[in-house]
Amino acid sequence: MYWLSDKIEFPPYELASPEGIIALGGDLSPKRLLHAYQKGIFPWFSEGDPIVWYCPPERMVLFPDELKISKSLQKILTKNEFRITENTAFEEVIYHCKTVKRNGEAGTWITDDMEQAYCKLHKLGHAKSIEVWKDKELVGGLYGVEVGKVFCGESMFSLASNASKIAFVHLVQSNKYQLIDCQIYNDYLASFGAREIKREMFLQFLNKFI
Fold first, then answer.
1. What is the Cα–Cα distance from 154 to 62, expressed in whole angstroms?
2. Beta-ladder partners of 42
3. Which of 91, 153, 188, 194 could disulfide-pair with 144, CB 3.0 to 4.6 Å?
4. Which pLDDT tens digit goes with each residue over 49-86?
5. What is the topology classification, in CATH, of domain 3-56?
6. 25: β partners
7. Contact call for residues 129 and 168 (beta carbons, < 8 A)
8. Residue 74 CB: number of other CB atoms within 10 A?
9. What is the signed CA dihedral for 128, 88, 124, 171, rounded to 10 degrees?
10. Residues 37-55: tens digit of each pLDDT
């Protein structure tokens, strides 16, 4: 397995493991993180473990024009019961993504170091958040990294029914991005029209939209 040095570089994706692990170690400095996302690589590891960097062979993505909105969600959207903002409460969003419990999950992969690293990226203008409010209370949201016309989604949370869905739809319909990178397959995002494509195709789109 390839261990990173102080030099900001990653090995070619052909050297990744079958699971998509491309490197270990290094740090979460803004420079390294931005370089990673520009190469289609993202960190994913648990507290106490070395940093694990992934470039999976299958990439979950959503093309904005393939967005699917259920009839029930569309009814909720037309009621305008929620207020949506962008980049007004990034630290609160990532904190909730880190601490809100999810069904079927024992813990969180957002370590303290990850939280601090993405807050730094936000202050530099690269990490973005969408916030969903109800009665002045933050009830949902998401955050990720902006790489040109690609939004690399990291996590979302919901404290009210459908709040994270509303944040996601707002992101996709903002007309700011040509591609939403969802990283790893899950049924939740598949219901919105996200699908897996080969790593090589994803990297071609990434290079095109940067």
1. 14
2. 54
3. 153
4. 899 999 999 999 999 999 999 999 999 999 989 999 99
5. Alpha-Beta Plaits (3.30.70)
6. 4
7. no
8. 10
9. 20
10. 999 999 999 888 899 999 9
Q: How far is CA 193 from the centre of its chain?
A: 16
**CA 37, 41, 46 angle in degrees (round to 5)?**
110
Helix (H) / strand (E) containing 35: helix 30-38
Task: Quote the DSSP letter at residue 178.
Answer: S
- CA pair distance 77, 123, nearest whole angstrom: 30
Contact indicator for 183, 60 with CB cutoff of 8 Å = yes
51 contact partners, CB below 8 Å, separation of at least 6: 24, 25, 26, 27, 28, 43, 45
pTM above 0.85, yes or no: yes
- CATH code, residues 60-209: 3.40.630.70
- The domains of the chain are located at 3-56, 60-209
